[in-house]
Amino acid sequence: MLRGALLLLSAACLAACGNAAPYPDTETPGPRAAGVLTIEPQALATRLEAGEAIQLIDVRTREEFAEGHIAGAINIPVDEFDPAALPDAEGRDRILYCRSDRRSGIAAERLAEATGSTAVHMEGGILAWKAAELPTRQ
Question: Which domains does the chain have, with CATH numbers?
Fold first, then answer.
């Protein structure tokens, strides 16, 4: 009888464990973890200085863009950001950025979901770029 109860208890525990999520709800990786990466400002600057083929997209407002942006960036505000309507990257890596990295993270999630591939955005946004004393253009 005791042996039967232990077997029943073991089976119940195994069944419960099999249905458990691998992470608590607060730690379950979402779309951002699956398809979005970040790049640090200095790493981006190094790639740009090396002449790597990069399509740099600033997703801030037109007013913010006019106040200063990274040389070579194109402006597509996040409110207008449509992955299907992006200009052809022509073999270049796309890297998105905004003021702090919140809006570029949203745009990168949209891009990753639409393309099924990894999207990259700059960690810390233009604030981090400026804090690293990297140049901007108006």
Answer: 30-131 (3.40.250.10)
